[in-house]
Design brief:
Length: 185
């Protein structure tokens, strides 16, 4: 079975914009901006035969703030420029009660079935408590990129990192048997 690194999209791969204190995803390709170190981080992980999968909630489609086509254009650009194997998306809103919207693990479980993944030997990197919760429910080792909107108090990640490059280096250290410094305090 294969190992994967599950990656949240907004705040992990690309910059979010903050409106009225709320982080918002890019509304289209014109607003898409990769965060520093992302290409390098993903290249490091890809060199070690890790499956790189984006798992992202995109409720703004259900809320009518952005079109599904705009989201899919962003994903096509990400897949064309980064060594991603796939992008799995939940387009639902909270009220829909689906199993794919993080903090539920549906996207990760579907990916595991489709790609033959060993979830307990896989990793999830996210910037919000919902990402961490989904990863933990799926049995992955979790990394929280702590920031102003991560709601750190609502989750207990296995590890914290400053950015995706830091998390990637820690994942590779773990694969080499050097650990990642123990669970986050």
């Amino acid at each position: 079975m294969r190992r994967a690194v599950f990656l949240d999209r907004d705040g992990v791969l690309n910059r979010v914009r903050v409106e009225d204190g709320i982080p918002r995803p890019p509304a289209g390709l014109g607003e898409l901006e990769l965060l520093p170190g992302v290409p390098e981080a993903l290249a490091l992980l890809a060199q070690h035969q890790l499956l790189l999968l984006v798992v992202t909630n995109q409720p703004d489609v259900a809320r009518g703030r952005v079109t599904r086509d705009a989201v899919e254009d962003i994903h096509a650009r990400l897949k064309a420029t980064l060594p991603l194997h796939d992008v799995l998306v939940c387009y639902h809103d909270d009220a829909d009660g689906c199993d794919c919207r993080k903090p539920r693990p549906g996207l990760l479980l579907r990916a595991a079935a489709a790609f033959g993944l060993d979830l307990p030997r896989s990793f999830l990197v996210g910037d919000r408590w919902k990402d961490v919760a989904a990863g933990q429910l799926a049995g992955c080792t979790t990394f929280l990129l702590a920031g102003p909107h991560s709601e750190r108090g609502r989750c207990h990640p296995d590890h914290e990192a400053g950015d995706l490059l830091d998390a990637s280096r820690a994942i590779l250290a773990a694969l080499r048997g050097r650990g990642v410094g123990g669970p986050a305090a």
